[in-house]
Amino acid sequence: MYLSLLHGLLMVPGENTPSKMQHSVLFRWTHSLLGSTPQLQQDSMYEAASMSCNVAFWYMKHASLIASKDDVTMEEAKEVHTSLRKAAGIFKLIECEFSPKLTERQMEAGDLDPRVISAYLTQCTAEAQEVTVARAVELKHNPSLISALANETFKLFSDAARTLDSLGDVASQWIKYLRLKAVVYQAYAYCFCGENLLGQDRCGEAVRALQESQSCYNRSIELCKEYAKTKGPAPKIHPENHSFFKRLAPKIRMILEKCERENGFIYHQKVPDDPPELELKATYGLVSPNEVPLPNPSPLWTPVSYSAFDTPKSRAKDPANSNAAAKVEGNLPPVPEVTMSQTSKDPKTSSGCILQ
To answer: Measured in Å, how far apart are the chain's first and last C-alpha atoms?
Structure first.
């Protein structure tokens, strides 16, 4: 609803041309990695992108809150999956529709930095796919499919981390988190690859796959320690205590012991020096972002209502205007929250609209 009302500040009603009011309001937003100092831009497209980011963050946090439970039900798992796909869809909307139309350069490592948007999009897709992997493991699907899904998830987390590498220390905590998750799913991929090879009587290769899985798991333990020591905006958490992490170690140990035992008694196959190649593409279960369409403009925006706005030329887009307005408005107190019922009863506010 907010974006549909903002539409008249973005585009001329009924036309595909920028609104005369696009640069008439100064908007301010803080950024996830950059502390509490706000960035100010006199651009309604900046507001549309930033508000969309905020909604996507809500979906991410909502999914995280549900997933943090010890016992997640089937319906809750579906809600986590849907929320993360919606978040990914919103980041894709920002990347494709809003970001190319921004008129000012975005802050390095800010929420609208193209690298940050790309990393969020990839991370949300990877985390939605985690739900698919967990479901496949729970239902005991074919180990080959689980291995391929885990490998795809490993690649998504790795891609997100690589996207942020050029940001340096400001994103170090986030990068460590992504690399940690990547290594965990690499361990899952080798673990189920080994189980699949064992089922094909390729016991020597299965042993090597499980050894590689154990090596990845040990690396993830070290990354957990590094992550816990890294300073950053995210709260301190302990991924090694999460169920997706804790259930992996006994699974690796159980299959590895079985492979070594059967290879010693029955197969007597040589264990290769190099680990087996993982499946390159899963045949089922790959996640894609939900398609999030641009909202239609509010019916309040008509050619008549639009033409009634008189925008002084002095407010035309100029970086100097933003800087001057920032100095004047820099110490504005926050706007108090007012309920809808209070607003409707107050004759001073019931007929107006304030954009902050």
So the answer is: 16
